[in-house]
């Protein structure tokens, strides 16, 4: 097992190397030079030439690549062209917001999704089943930004019971220790600040949560369906165990494994969803920052983020693959 | 954005090669079809898709105006957009550019169909190519391809699509290609894992003992039997393509005329007028949801029909 | 976050610590104290029942808190609260008036200006504003080197003062002399008629020399790839303005508080918060939900419905120009008859009525009418599609032609709130005379700007400009002063005329020259001036007065609140 893990981590190196080449080439193949991005309406030809020279955009590609990779290896992800701050610093201040949001979204998705999926499987083919399936399907078919708009329109504008944007009311003077606003409020005893930050998480959390919710319902349902017909469940039943014991100890526990692994794989989906949700709710997290980076082609940010997320993803993938081989010995980790 | 579906519950480990089982009415596909006909979800899905295809095909006849026409250009001002029923000749009102909303919704079906079919086909083709090479050949080819697929999969699909669209510039094809490329790794991985789970099946062992060549086994046994999850995924991708196209439009990608009759585009521009003309957002939004729901219902039912586990019940 | 010298008001202290930093009990106790003091403080100040906190939605973070290194509207909006220049702007106009300088005298040759400074002015850090500070600022700009000189880093100094100390032959600035505490003389190497109005730009505001040095304002960029802001620009701006910097939660909000020792009127507002909301629709919703007091760049579609709902919508006097650009490198557009035909094909009235906000004026030339050199009698081209077709036929295109039309997407500029709609409208108008356009959209930055300004790959395009101050060169000199890829024409006569006018030291003579140039441009038709759109702001009902300025010189002390 350890050898497998070591091998996989070693494999990560060529992967990241390949990724860095792809990313580098991607930036250079973008239409329009980076120089004009920095200049705006008044760019004169001399100004463009001067910026190119100063920033080294006119050096040979290979030289530029080695400069780039050299810096990456030193942990220097560059400086955002949008904000003029180091990319890593930007990530550090914005990740807590997105993590907070994701946690709320996942709590909602899991809290609602697993019971719903379980009930659907238990009453397979009945009304509960059909309605939960249709509900979960609508969950995936509504474009997330559209859903976010509807939620905001209904619960922040028409019936203003929840805040429409941001992470905290601008008039609240909160002390920020960790940048997790709810946690900060609890740590410092500023209860109103914590409560306010929590209220700001509800609408975007619901919008973002519907995507994993739909998937969790479906996986739970499929998984419970499969397990409840498995031989060992039948054996248990034949042994005359209580139905409650069977469901609790055998069905639900065994059905949860794929559900847990699936949740792990939703990372990319959540990030994609966060880009859209945070934009609608002007929520200052990594998603909105990425959206700005996309709009302004802030390539140091995009490059840095993709590399970061690739490492994270590879680690999650490794864990999932390892768990596959634990669950199903027929699939060997290569 | 796009949905990474887990492989269909369990792998089929039937001792006989289901693809070769052509006798009587018990064939995998025929059986699935029969089961589909009895499934209300599948029927609802099929009706939606049928209507959608009909509208898309008959758009030139059904729509009062062309998709990009601006018949009401002179009737709009920055502060007023005539809504449904407020102006003669435009039953659903006008949009911000002076286009007829009804016509645009009808033409939009065509555009969505085109985006869905083209991007799914491209994604499926690319994914199958990689999947066959990887699952069929195994060894270092498999390793290299899967590394590449991992790289692509590790980038959130929306970000991947956006990155590709950024390079391609703003054109309607950019969106299709971007969505397709973002789907390739999903199809590739799905096909590979499906083939992997079939590789140990008895009928493959049997074929191998018979001395069939590797490529024959891959192409005529492994592949057909691994296609189930792919077909399901393709149906679902038709749905996600429609939604993804809307998301990419929302992020400002996609070319052509701003008034292009495309639901995602209409929804995107409607956001600026959400407060004064909410119908401009809700109508195309509803079209997207209903169409995507149709494809998803059908895809889901198909998955269930093909799934040996639920089949046995 | 605090500036040495001034006492920091405890209620605004914000603690920021790295993610990994542990939380000590001491810190907890400290914040506990802060908490209780804060509660006592609120409500005690302000005027009666007026909520003295003003929340304004900004569309983005400021790029830099050091205005000398900024050029974007949001940086300047914040700068105008924190900093003041020697020269200010007369309220409601684009014209200069004394601010930190009580008066100035210009020598006969126009090369030397002596400023008499306001007395008793202090920077937020407690240091005095005096002649030394003035010269320190001028010398700071002049002595920039390397990356600081990049046009993207210091755009305004580059544009207006041209050169730096290492290349004095290019520079307009020469030296600054301190004559006693309250008098400074600035010498220029070349005449520059726009010198005084230029000093009203936030980019040339007076900053505290002590703070600039302490927080290493000129240390930008650890890397050359993209410049990194200095400590100063990230969180220590110190000026003489009515508000001082408190904190900046990047992407979230920026807080300012009233400077107790401010020399002028302090007004009703004691705390200003800039809330960052990038989506225009979200800004409107925030106003409706009551989390903000106002926002800028109201979408044209929203003005009426906001008014109907009881909000105050304030339109600025237009100080903008939106034009339809021509790339003269394209065969058809190089033909003057075609350009004239297009001028006749466009119904500017209809365009304004159908796509641009209320208060927008139709444009006949490339400067708004309040700018010197505006020519009342300039040649105009009436909307006449038949004439346009005739001209096209004469030019050899009886059946029209096909041409690329570039426009930006997902952007709202003060001079172009909805580019897609302007494009759609023009496209339909051109189609009526037989000109078919190939729509070529691009994201604003960097794609669109690069395509238009850096390459020849464009045909017709939409672009414009918002004036910074009352200076004709700031409009037409920027557009047509030299050969540029944007227009691709070489008209030495026009270039020379603009160059000459720019250098004139006599204002009347210069105005006359610009009037002639405007006529010259109208005949040449390098592009078509479309409109002067008026940007609007929206406020909730408690804001009874807002000092709207055509050049955005809006200081929040002049805001009046009713509750």
Describe the structure.
Chain A is built from 14 helices and no strands. With 334 residues, chain A is mainly α. The longest helix of chain A has 38 residues, at 191-228. The model of chain A has no long low-confidence stretch (mean pLDDT 80). The longest helix of chain B is centred in the middle third of the chain and has 37 residues, at 101-137. Chain B has helices at 28-38, 40-62, 101-137, 139-154, 157-168, 172-199, 202-209, 214-250, 263-270, 279-306, 308-311. Chain B is elongated, with a radius of gyration of 23 Å. Chain C is built from 18 helices and 21 strands. By secondary structure, chain C is an alpha+beta fold. Chain C is globular, with a radius of gyration of 25 Å. In chain C, helix 11 packs antiparallel against helix 13 (385-394), helix 16 (473-480) runs antiparallel to helix 17 and helix 17 (492-503) runs antiparallel to helix 18 (507-524). The chains are: A mainly alpha (334), B mainly alpha (313), C alpha+beta (563). Chains A and C meet through helix 2, helix 3, helix 5, helix 7 and helix 13 of A and helix 1, helix 4, strand 10, helix 8 and helix 15 of C.
Q: How does the helix and strand content of chain C classify structurally?
A: alpha+beta
> Ends of chain C: how far apart?
31 Å
Largest sheet of chain C: 7 strands, mixed
Question: β content of chain C, as a range?
Answer: 15-25%
Reading side by side through the largest sheet of chain C, how are the strands ordered?
8-9-10-1-11-19-12
Structural class of chain B: mainly alpha
The outline of chain C comes out as globular
Q: What average pLDDT do the residues of chain B reach? A: 80
Compute the separation of the termini of chain B in Å.
33 Å
Low-confidence residue ranges of chain B = 1-15, 21-25
Number of strands of chain B: 0
**Biggest interface found:** A-C, 74 and 81 residues
Task: Summarize the helices and strands and which ones pair or pack.
The complex is a heterotrimer of chains A (334), B (313) and C (563).
Chain A: H1 2-28, H2 34-39, H3 45-55, H4 61-73, H5 87-122, H6 127-141, H7 144-158, H8 181-188, H9 191-228, H10 231-238, H11 243-265, H12 267-280, H13 286-295, H14 299-327
Chain B: H1 28-38, H2 40-62, H3 101-137, H4 139-154, H5 157-168, H6 172-199, H7 202-209, H8 214-250, H9 263-270, H10 279-306, H11 308-311
Helix pairs in contact in B: 1-10, 2-3, 2-10, 3-4, 3-6, 3-8, 3-10, 4-6, 5-6, 6-8, 8-9, 8-10, 9-10
Chain C: H1 25-41, E1 53-58, H2 73-82, E2 87-89, E3 96-98, E4 101-106, E5 112-117, H3 131-142, H4 155-161, E6 173-178, E7 183-188, H5 195-198, H6 209-214, H7 231-235, E8 243-249, E9 253-258, E10 271-276, H8 280-289, E11 294-296, H9 300-308, E12 312-315, E13 320-326, H10 331-334, H11 336-345, H12 348-355, E14 361-362, H13 385-394, E15 401-409, H14 419-432, E16 435-443, H15 444-454, E17 460-466, H16 473-480, H17 492-503, H18 507-524, E18 527-532, E19 536-539, E20 543-545, E21 560-561
Helix pairs in contact in C: 11-13, 16-17, 17-18
């Amino acid at each position: 097992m350890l050898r497998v893990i070591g091998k996989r981590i070693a494999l990560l190196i060529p992967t990241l190397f390949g990724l860095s080449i792809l990313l580098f080439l991607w930036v250079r193949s973008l239409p329009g030079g980076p120089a004009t991005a920095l200049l705006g309406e008044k760019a004169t030809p001399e100004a463009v030439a001067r910026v190119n020279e100063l920033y080294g955009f006119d050096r040979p590609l290979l030289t530029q690549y080695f400069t780039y990779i050299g810096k990456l290896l030193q942990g220097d992800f560059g400086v955002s062209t949008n904000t003029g701050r180091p990319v890593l610093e930007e990530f550090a201040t914005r990740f807590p917001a997105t993590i907070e949001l994701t946690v709320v979204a996942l709590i909602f998705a899991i809290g609602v999704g697993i019971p719903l999926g379980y009930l659907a499987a238990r009453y397979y083919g009945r009304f509960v089943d059909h309605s939960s399936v249709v509900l979960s399907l609508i969950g995936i078919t509504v474009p997330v930004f559209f859903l976010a708009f509807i939620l905001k329109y209904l619960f922040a504008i028409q019936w203003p019971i929840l805040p429409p944007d941001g992470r905290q009311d601008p008039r609240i003077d909160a002390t920020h220790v960790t940048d997790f606003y709810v946690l900060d409020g609890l740590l410092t005893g500023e209860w109103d600040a914590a409560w306010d930050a929590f209220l700001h998480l509800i609408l975007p959390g619901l919008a973002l949560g519907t995507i994993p919710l739909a998937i969790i319902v479906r996986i739970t349902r499929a998984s419970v369906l499969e397990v409840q017909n498995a031989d060992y469940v039948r054996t248990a039943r034949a042994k005359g165990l209580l139905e409650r014991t069977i469901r609790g100890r055998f069905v639900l526990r065994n059905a949860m494994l794929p559900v847990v692994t699936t949740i792990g794989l939703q990372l990319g989906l959540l990030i994609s969803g966060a880009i859209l949700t945070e934009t609608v709710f002007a929520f200052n997290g990594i998603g909105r920052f990425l959206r700005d980076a996309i709009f302004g082609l802030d390539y140091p940010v995009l490059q840095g983020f993709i590399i970061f997320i690739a490492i994270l993803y590879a680690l999650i993938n490794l864990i999932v693959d390892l768990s596959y081989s634990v669950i199903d010995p027929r699939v060997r980790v290569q | 954005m796009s949905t990474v579906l887990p492989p269909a519950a369990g792998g089929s480990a039937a001792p006989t090669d289901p693809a070769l089982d052509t006798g009587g009415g018990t064939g995998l596909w025929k059986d699935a079809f029969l089961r589909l006909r009895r499934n209300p979800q599948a029927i609802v899905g099929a009706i939606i898709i049928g209507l959608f295809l009909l509208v898309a095909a008959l758009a030139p006849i059904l729509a009062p105006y062309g998709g990009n026409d601006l018949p009401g250009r002179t009737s709009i001002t920055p502060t007023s957009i005539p809504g449904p029923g407020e102006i003669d000749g435009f039953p659903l009102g006008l949009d911000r550019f002076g286009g007829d909303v009804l016509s645009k919704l009808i033409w939009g079906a065509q555009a969505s169909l085109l985006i869905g079919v083209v991007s799914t086909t491209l994604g499926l083709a690319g994914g199958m190519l990689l999947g066959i090479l990887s699952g069929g050949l195994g060894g270092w080819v498999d390793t290299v391809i899967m590394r590449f697929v991992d790289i692509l999969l590790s980038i959130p699909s929306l970000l991947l699509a956006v990155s590709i669209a950024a390079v391609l510039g703003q054109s309607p094809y950019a969106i299709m290609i971007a969505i397709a490329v973002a789907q390739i790794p999903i199809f590739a991985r799905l096909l590979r894992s499906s083939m992997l789970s079939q590789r140990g099946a008895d009928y493959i062992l049997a074929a191998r003992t018979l001395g069939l060549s590797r490529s024959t086994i891959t192409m005529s046994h492994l592949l057909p039997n691994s296609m189930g999850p792919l077909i399901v995924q393709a149906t679902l991708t038709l749905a996600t393509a429609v939604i993804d196209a809307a998301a990419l439009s929302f992020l400002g990608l996609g070319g052509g005329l701003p008034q292009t009759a495309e639901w995602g585009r209409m929804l995107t521009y409607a956001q600026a007028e959400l407060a004064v003309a909410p119908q401009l957002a809700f109508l195309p939004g509803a079209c997207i949801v209903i169409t995507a729901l149709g494809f998803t219902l059908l895809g889901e039912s198909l998955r269930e029909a093909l799934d040996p586990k639920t089949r046995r019940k | 976050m605090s500036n040495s010298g001034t006492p920091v008001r405890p209620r605004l202290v914000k603690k920021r610590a790295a993610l990994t930093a542990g939380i000590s009990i001491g810190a907890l106790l400290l914040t506990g104290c802060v908490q209780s003091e804060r509660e006592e403080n609120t409500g005690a100040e302000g005027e009666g029942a007026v909520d003295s906190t003003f929340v304004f939605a900004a569309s983005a973070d400021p790029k830099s808190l050091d205005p000398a290194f900024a050029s974007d509207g949001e940086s300047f909006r914040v700068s105008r609260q924190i900093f003041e220049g020697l020269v200010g702007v007369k309220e409601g106009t684009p014209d200069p008036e004394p601010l930190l300088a009580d008066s100035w005298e210009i020598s006969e040759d126009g090369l030397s200006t002596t400023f008499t400074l306001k007395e008793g002015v202090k920077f937020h850090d407690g240091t005095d504003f005096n002649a030394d500070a003035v010269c320190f600022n001028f010398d700071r700009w002049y002595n920039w080197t390397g990356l600081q000189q990049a046009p993207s880093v210091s755009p305004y100094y580059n544009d207006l003062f041209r050169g730096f100390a290492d290349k004095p032959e290019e520079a307009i600035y020469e030296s600054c002399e301190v004559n006693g505490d309250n008098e400074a003389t600035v010498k220029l190497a070349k005449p520059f008629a726009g010198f005084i109005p230029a000093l009203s730009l936030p980019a040339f505001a007076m900053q505290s020399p002590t703070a600039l040095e302490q927080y290493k304002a000129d240390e930008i960029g650890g890397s050359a790839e993209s410049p990194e802001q200095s400590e100063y620009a990230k969180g220590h701006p110190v000026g003489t303005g009515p508000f001082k910097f408190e904190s900046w939660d990047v992407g979230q909000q920026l807080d300012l508080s009233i400077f107790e020792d401010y020399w002028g009127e302090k007004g009703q507002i004691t705390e200003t918060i800039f809330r960052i909301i990038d989506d225009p629709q979200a800004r409107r919703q925030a106003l409706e939900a009551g989390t903000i007091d106002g926002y800028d760049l109201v979408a044209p579609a929203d003005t009426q419905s906001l008014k109907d709902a009881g909000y105050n919508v304030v339109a600025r006097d237009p100080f903008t120009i939106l034009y339809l650009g021509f790339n003269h490198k394209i065969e058809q557009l190089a033909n003057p008859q075609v350009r004239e035909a297009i001028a006749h094909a466009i119904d500017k009235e209809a365009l304004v009525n159908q796509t641009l906000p209320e208060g927008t004026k139709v444009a006949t030339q490339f400067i708004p009418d309040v700018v010197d050199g505006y020519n009342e009698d300039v040649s105009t081209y009436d909307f006449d599609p038949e004439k346009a077709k005739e001209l096209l036929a004469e030019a050899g295109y009886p059946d029209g032609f096909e041409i690329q039309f570039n426009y930006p997407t997902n952007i709202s500029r003060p001079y172009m709130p909805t580019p897609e709609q302007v494009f759609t409208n023009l496209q339909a108008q051109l189609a009526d005379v037989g000109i078919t356009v190939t729509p070529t959209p691009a994201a604003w930055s960097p794609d669109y700007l690069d395509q238009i300004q850096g390459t020849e790959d464009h045909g017709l395009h939409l672009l414009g400009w918002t004036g910074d101050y009352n200076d004709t060169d700031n409009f037409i000199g920027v557009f047509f002063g030299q050969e540029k890829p944007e227009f691709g024409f070489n008209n030495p006569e026009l270039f020379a005329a603009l160059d000459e006018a720019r250098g004139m030291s006599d204002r009347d003579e210069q105005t006359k020259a610009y009037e002639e140039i405007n006529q010259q441009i109208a005949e040449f038709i390098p592009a078509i001036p479309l409109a002067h759109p008026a940007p609007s702001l929206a406020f909730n009902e408690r804001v009874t007065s807002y000092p709207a300025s055509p050049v955005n010189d809006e200081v929040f002390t002049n805001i009046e609140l009713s509750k």
